[in-house]
Design brief:
Elements lengths: L3 E6 L4 H5 L6 E5 L7 H7 L4 E8 L2 E8 L8 E3 L37 H7 L2 E2 L6 H9 L6 E2 L6 H8 L3
Parallel strand pairs: 6-7
Antiparallel strand pairs: 1-2, 1-5, 2-3, 3-4
């Protein structure tokens, strides 16, 4: 089961007051298992909730009371608790494929993850989404998403993206 590992607890935040520590794994927010930082933010946007943690192989639960608009005060090692979704298109114009060798490894990641688009403004093609991910985007009203659109004609788009 993917979990979010706490990388930083902001001083004087609700998380710090509740005793959350760096290295804790967030297992659930009010009983809901988060898939990523988006879920944590949405599920913790209420006045009172339980945060289920694992610390040193020991499970524990802390109660948090805060203003619903107040940030929880947790930063995670990665925003996606599973893995970043990468692009499976074969676009001739892909700027990542055109990068010269020898740059830092993270520049060569063909990110196509809607969560990174929502959180950081990364561009996505929306061609690699599952029906469940489409439903999640709609249900959680994840907007704005920054979509890379090079053609709207379906046949031309398939040809340009190299993805039927």
């Amino acid at each position: 089961m993917p979990v979010g590992v706490v990388d930083r607890v902001l001083p004087e935040s609700p998380a710090e007051r509740a005793g959350v520590q760096v290295g804790d794994a967030v297992l659930a927010v009010n009983g809901l298992v988060p898939r990523d930082v988006v879920d944590v933010r949405l599920d913790s946007s209420i006045a009172q909730f339980a945060l289920d943690l694992e610390r040193n192989r020991r499970r524990m639960s802390v109660q948090i009371t805060k203003d619903p608009d107040e940030d929880l005060g947790i930063e995670f090692a990665t925003p996606a608790f599973d893995r970043m979704k990468t692009c499976n298109n074969a676009c001739e114009f892909c700027f990542i494929r055109g990068l010269p060798p020898g740059l830092r490894r993270s520049l060569y990641i063909k990110d196509d993850d809607f969560r990174y688009s929502f959180l950081y403004g990364n561009f996505v093609t929306l061609t690699n989404l599952t029906p469940t991910e489409w439903q999640r985007i709609i249900f959680q009203r994840l907007s704005p998403l920054h979509v890379s659109v090079h053609a709207t004609d379906l046949e031309l788009r398939r040809e340009l993206l190299g993805n039927p």
